Amino acid sequence: MRRVAGVVLAACCAAAVACGTAGPVSAKSVSAEAHRAAARPVAFDCTGQHGGHVQPGTVYLDCLSGNAFVKTPSWAYWTAEAAKTSQPGQPRTAVLWVNTCKPMCAAGHYRKYKAVLSFFRPETVHGVRFFTRMRLRYTHGSARDYTFRWGTLPGATLPGWIGGPTGPA
User: Are 134 and 127 in contact, with CB atoms under 8 Å apart?
Assistant: First the structure.
């Protein structure tokens, strides 16, 4: 699909140049620009800014130990501005996995919670468009709401999701 769109766009630009309605434009620069504009933002996780994915199947919240992650078998939408695993009134499809660390974390006993995961506030850095914010909502006794930003903690060498409970609305 992207290749077809690039070919069509390049052909239109070539026709405009031939008719004298546009200045000289290379097909390579036009297709690269069209690709950047049409590209959906990626979501990063523990691999830093080298392994972003569109509609990832798993998003790790705890990169050092893997004790907290969200499995996302499907996404309600993934657009240029936002992404979400389910819409209001629809069943929650994402599942938050949290290691209970009982009797110890290495044992890998997990509790699971139905959740809603969303990404928003895209930015483009070094030609890569990615989401800079993530929100996680789930219920454990009461409604829980966490907001994260993509960034690097002081003294850290790799970026990750930094955040915690969202304050009162």
Answer: no
